[in-house]
Design a protein that fits this description.
Order of helices and strands: HHHHHHHHHHH
Low-confidence stretches: 1-20, 353-363
Helix content: over 70%
Structural class: mainly alpha
Shape: globular
Number of strands: 0
Length: 365
């Protein structure tokens, strides 16, 4: 356990974690690289598919709040039973050790494996606010803007919050990385703000993307402060958001108090969103990201996920026909360089302080 209470993973800087277990006869190396490829592909696809689904001009039948609903239902099918099982297992183990009364077991009726206070805070920032802000951003702004302003801005917000709340230090290299990210954000978001008075609504999407990135960073810092296990944190935010959002939205839509289409849209569209947004983006990428961390370590894993902004912008141009003007390309380049410099700076700080192996919260879609 490192000095600030963050959960740690054994990792020799620059070397794979050879303690990773093999899966289905695959070597740890094959498992690590497979997990990395799947993670990057899902995170990249998330941006493109979310834009294609939420953009009204593309004829989507589900609005952003419908997509959030489908995401939670898909993830809940797998993660809510897991939460119940984790709580049951914890109780059995405690009883075997004779400490059954020494601690409370989860919250939300056993659906969340975390205490209620942590479940509420993690679920609010990492679940409800992130999903609603991100999907609504795709209504107004292109996917390429999301590529820069969501995953690209995560290191900026996370670093600033970690410095303010966790006492981490600012180095010259880290400051350079953050400055590059700010420059990239300004090239993309600043350009849309200049056209706000021309009637363009793109700036609204950019603001929502930045807010989504910020609230996920708040969640990331909370995870590090509390030293949470990645699986338990994911189950907790799903449990909180499911319990709060799904019943409320069901009632509001059925009473026609909000313009939802989740119960009238073709079942294929709803099932697809449940599968990709819920099972893919939440469950599968959560598992593969954790596996990637176990093999490559947190620093190298973050370097790998730095590919996501550029790949998603290119994918949006290819599959959605979105343009890539010079300011967007320059912004992508600056943000990617900023991530690289920032990760190198964090690695140097970690080696000097002995906290080299703290698991980052990641840029989960």
């Amino acid at each position: 356990m490192c000095r600030r209470g963050c959960r740690c993973v054994p990792d020799n800087p620059g070397m794979p974690n050879q303690g990773s277990q093999s899966v289905a006869g695959l070597s740890p190396k094959a498992v690590g690289w497979t997990a990395a490829v799947v993670t990057v592909l899902i995170w990249t696809s998330f941006i493109v598919i979310a834009r294609a689904s939420a953009d009204p001009a593309r004829g989507g039948v589900l609005n952003p709040f419908d997509i959030v609903y489908a995401r939670l239902c898909g993830a809940g099918l797998f993660l809510l039973p897991l939460g119940l099982w984790l709580n049951w297992r914890d109780r059995i183990r405690s009883e075997e050790l004779g400490v059954a009364q020494a601690r409370a077991f989860g919250s939300l009726g056993g659906l969340s494996p975390l205490p209620l206070s942590q479940t509420l805070q993690a679920g609010l920032f990492g679940g409800l606010l992130y999903a609603t802000l991100a999907y609504n951003g795709f209504v107004f702004a292109p996917a390429a803007h999301a590529s820069v302003l969501m995953p690209g801005s995560l290191p900026l917000w996370t670093a600033l919050l970690a410095i303010a709340l966790l006492g981490e230090r600012m180095t010259a290299m880290r400051a350079l990385g953050l400055a590059l990210i700010v420059g990239g954000d300004l090239l993309v978001g600043g350009s849309s703000l200049l056209h706000a008075f021309d009637g363009s609504g793109v700036w609204r999407g950019d603001v929502l993307f930045m807010l989504a990135s910020f609230v996920w960073s708040v969640y990331s810092v909370l995870v590090r402060r509390w030293g949470l296990d990645a699986v338990r944190a994911t189950v907790a935010i799903t449990a909180f958001t499911f319990v709060l959002y799904v019943p409320a939205y069901t009632v509001l839509v059925l009473l026609q108090w909000v313009p939802g289409n989740v119960f009238t849209a073709p079942w294929q569209d709803v099932l697809f969103q449940m599968g990709f947004q819920g099972v893919g983006s939440v469950v599968i990428s959560g598992i593969t990201f954790t596996r990637m961390i176990q093999y490559f370590g947190p620093v190298r894993s973050t370097m790998i996920t730095a590919l996501v902004p550029g790949m998603s912008a290119i994918a949006a141009a290819v599959f959605l026909g979105e343009p890539l003007p010079w300011n967007l390309l320059a912004g992508l380049a600056l943000v990617t360089l900023g991530i690289v410099f920032g990760v190198r700076a964090v690695k140097q700080i970690a080696i000097k302080t002995g906290a080299a192996h703290a698991v980052p919260a990641g840029a989960k879609p």
